[in-house]
Amino acid sequence: MIPFAELSTADLQATREKLLECYRAFQERKLTLDMTRGKPSPEQLDLAMEMLTGDVGREYSSPSGVDCRNYGGLDGIKEAKALSARYLEVASDEIIVGDSASLKMMHDTIMGALVYGVEDSMQPWGKLDTVKFLCPSPGYDRHFAICQYLGIEMITVGLGPDGPDMNTVEELVAADERIKGIWCVPKYSNPTGITYSDTVVDRLAAMETKAADFKIFCDNAYAMHHLGETGDPLKNMLSACKDANNPDRVFLFGSTSKISFAGSGVAMMAASRKNIEFILSKMQFQTIGPNKLNQLRHVLFFKDVAGIEKHMARHAAILKPKFEAVLEVLERELAGSAIAAWSKPNGGYFISIDTLPGCAQEVISKAADAGVKLTPAGATFPYGRDPQNTNIRIAPSFPSVADVQTAMELVAICIKLVSIDKLLGGS
Ligand SMILES: Cc1ncc(COP(=O)(O)O)c(C=O)c1O
């Protein structure tokens, strides 16, 4: 395909006319497709149904003899701790297994830091005039929403193919003690699908920070969510922090939301023993204990990490054709046009498209007008503002393969139409 920028005005106008016809045909189909959020499809959720319907669903006594119907066990049942520790690659005294949402654990950890500080704080973060977080972007909108809600100033830093722009990160954290944290989704990042390189992990672990109580909020939501047989390797952030003599720098989070049931899985957080003790000392006032029955169901269903891996291969078999459908349409319709670039992730839940500057919002609204809802423009950046207005997050997990294909054909038409308008100077 000839790059659009090299087409004559007449060719662009003729292409535009043809595209408009296709676009109107899509409008007449009155589609109602939703690709706004990375939700598992019903078919994926069905994979774990035995957890509710079989013997597993009826059991209430843990292998070590705890009656899971009753109160207690603030940091989770022993077997769930052992399984989660292996999942996040930490020791079983470095983990808390909680209820169903890791996002809540992230929110509560930050809220706790504002009210009491973290384990190595001189004073609660909330006593400062300003608390700032670094937000590698494009990133996860709900991380940014937590910061905005809690009044934490967000600083956007770039996210490249191997992780955050570390030169900028290092420079910023070394200079400003009000920068207390950084958000990281180190594997199959939401939405670009990249995985942090060892070098990036090591630099995050070792960098000089002006704030003595600086924390990495490392959300490993997609730790085993590969699309192929082998996943991207990721260096463990807690081990890297220990090796760099900053053992208390990182909080790791994860959950089985996209392994068992989204919003009804098991969430976990890991950190140094010192951090875990500090968090539990506060958590005891929040709850008498987590939902141990749900933890038990997960332990009995998956048994071990190999069980999770086997289960994730079944998820991948459902997800892969959907990712392939997105990439096939993008390749077929846009390769060589130089009006869009897109990620080709090895796992996770998203594909990220970058349009020409200034086009993303219009593409998303055009797609919505023809019945395909995408994640709102700007959502992948702090304050909902994409400075270049280029990023579009595609979440192909929920619709069927056929619907994903239809939706992407429309998205490709919208990208072409909006880009042509831009190249023609808004005509
Ligand atoms: C990066 C990331 N973290 C966390 C979550 C939500 O996790 P949970 O369901 O455990 O709160 C998501 C869901 O899309 C996500 O993409």
Primary descriptors:
15 helices; single chain; three-stranded antiparallel sheet; Aspartate Aminotransferase, domain 1; binds pyridoxal-5'-phosphate; 427 residues; 42% helix; eight-stranded mixed sheet; alpha/beta
Describe this structure in words.
The protein has helices spanning 9-28, 42-46, 50-53, 55-58, 78-88, 102-116, 141-149, 166-175, 198-206, 237-243, 273-283, 292-302, 305-334, 360-369, 401-423; strands at residues 33-35, 95-97, 132-137, 153-160, 163-164, 179-184, 215-219, 250-255, 267-270, 340-342, 351-355, 372-374, 391-394. It is an alpha/beta fold. It folds into two domains: 4-44 and 309-423, Aspartate Aminotransferase, domain 1, CATH 3.90.1150; 61-303, Type I PLP-dependent aspartate aminotransferase-like (Major domain) (Aspartate Aminotransferase, domain 2, 3-Layer(aba) Sandwich). The strands form three sheets. Strands 2-9-8-7-6-3-4-5 form an eight-stranded mixed β-sheet, with helices on both faces. The chain has a three-stranded antiparallel β-sheet with strand order 10-11-13, covered by helices on one side. The longest helix has 30 residues, at 305-334. It is globular and about 75 Å long. It starts with 8 loop residues before the first helix and ends with a helix. Pyridoxal-5'-phosphate (PLP) is lined by residues 38, 101-103, 140, 185, 190, 219, 221, 255, 257, 263, 267. Pyridoxal-5'-phosphate binds at residues 38, 101-103, 140, 185, 190, 219, 221, 255, 257, 263, 267.
